[in-house]
Amino acid sequence: MTATTLAGAEAGLTQGPGAARSPQAIFAAARDREGSLSQLLMTFISTGLLFMVFPGTFLGVWNLLQISGRESVASVSGTWIEAHGHAQIFGWVGTFILGIGFYSIPKLRGGAASYFRAAWICWVMWTVGVALRWLANVYMWAWRALLPVSALLELIAFVIFFLQVAQHRPGRGTKSRFEPWIVVVASASVGLLLTLLTNLAGCVYVAIRGVSPAFPHVFDQRYLALAAWGFLVPFVWGFSAKWMTVFLGLRPFRPRVLLAAVALNLCGIVLTVAGYTAAGACFFPVSTSLAVVALRMFEPAVNPAKVRGVHPSFPWFVRMAYGWLLVAASLGWAAVRWDSSGGIWGASRHALTVGFVAVMILSVGQRILPAFAGMRLLWSSRLMFAGLGLLTLGCTLRVCCEVIAYQGYGSWAWSVLPVSALSELGGLTLFAVNILGTFILEPSHAHKESVVFAMPAKLS
Ligand code: HEM
């Protein structure tokens, strides 16, 4: 109930017949609405977990086992690699973002019914779109038709989401809608929109001209740079600015430095997408360092971290995720100079997607999702630690050994890569089990909660 504002409840629930209602009726309706929002969130999150484990991680592990066995990345079909990447970025991370967005920023101007209708239509279109892409890539059945259809479904689903949340206005007493963290999240949303448009263009192109569903290599590399630095990274920066000060007990972030980081990051993306990869890669270590300074990620905390209900290592893993982002940016810079096999690029991308994004989702997700899902408690904080530990171990082995093996610096590293894959698979599976355990086995305490009026209260 805590994310529900009374203003929002009244706005949404006093429209239509019988507008004058007792406070009890308003609170009861707000509770129902909060229950429906939690159901919606849990559906999005469970869908994201499904994409993460099966089409995403299992296929990634399978690909890596084949690559390691044959000691060559070229031995695996590009369409399978792209099927894995798409399922992870859009099926897992994208579905989580849509679900959390719909849950956190409910706008009931058109009425609760139309809001939920839009959200469910978005869920169906997004899920079908991502699933069709995976099936087309893996089974190559009717792929010339399915690819553009899937990309169009994803784009329309995102536009539905965007139109709903774009109507959001801050409640009375809150600051300007152009708070710096909102600007950063808005820039990430534009990045996601551009990524989806590029995806649609790529799908239409290969449907007409391609010999397989795989994007041409150069196009794919630029598209991945847009997805990683234009969408994933600024999303995490924006939400870090919103939440990490409280969660980690840090001093307030430096807004101007963060906006400078976003501007430099944008320069890097524009150069990379325009084909000036070497120049673009120089911007990311600088923008990433600025973001770390802006968010005070490695400065000492001034207040106790909010670790109630989660494992006490939570702040440590969040900081480590930013360490991985620095590694990813530095490896990208090194790849321009020394990569001869795709190994340094691959390690850079993995440090970003797994070290930064996945470690952050496992940390923050287990902190916030139980509360969002009807004020539940996390099923197991030990499982949280075990999952994060395995993921970190796997990511460390993968990033180091991908460079060593692919570049031919040491053939022993090929035999470590399968271990890294299984370790990461274990970490991500424990995360999925812990979240589903929370949704299914932990009781909801929403009915005991009185209406509280702001998100941070829920998260404290
Ligand atoms: C168990 C965990 C994972 C394993 C074993 C794995 C494995 C792989 C492998 C073998 C490749 C092929 C390229 C290369 O050799 O580097 C790859 C590419 C990729 N992975 Fe993963 N991965 C995992 C997790 C993730 C996660 C969590 C994400 C995103 C959140 C992700 C996103 C991608 C992307 C975007 C690509 C590039 C696809 C393309 O070329 O279009 N992976 N992964």
Extract low-pLDDT stretches.
1-18, 450-460
Task: List SSEs in N-to-C order.
Answer: HHHHHHHHHHHHHH
The number of strands is 0
What structural class do the secondary elements suggest? mainly alpha
| Terminal Cα span | 14 Å
Our count of helices gives 14
Radius of gyration: 22 Å
The whole-number mean of residue pLDDT values reads 91
Give the helix level as a range of percent: over 70%
User: Major sheet, described briefly?
Assistant: none
Bound molecules: protoporphyrin IX containing FE
Shape assignment: globular
- Beta-strand portion reads under 5%
Account of the 3D structure:
- By secondary structure, the protein is mainly alpha-helical.
- Helix content is 75%, strand content 0%.
- It has a domain at 305-460.
- It has helices at residues 6-13, 23-70, 78-104, 112-139, 143-166, 180-209, 217-248, 255-273, 277-295, 314-338, 343-372, 381-406, 417-441, 455-459.
- The chain is globular.
- The chain binds protoporphyrin IX containing FE (HEM).
- Protoporphyrin IX containing FE is lined by residues 57, 60-61, 63-64, 67, 73, 81-82, 84-85, 88-89, 93, 220, 224, 346, 349, 353-354, 357-358, 421, 424-425.
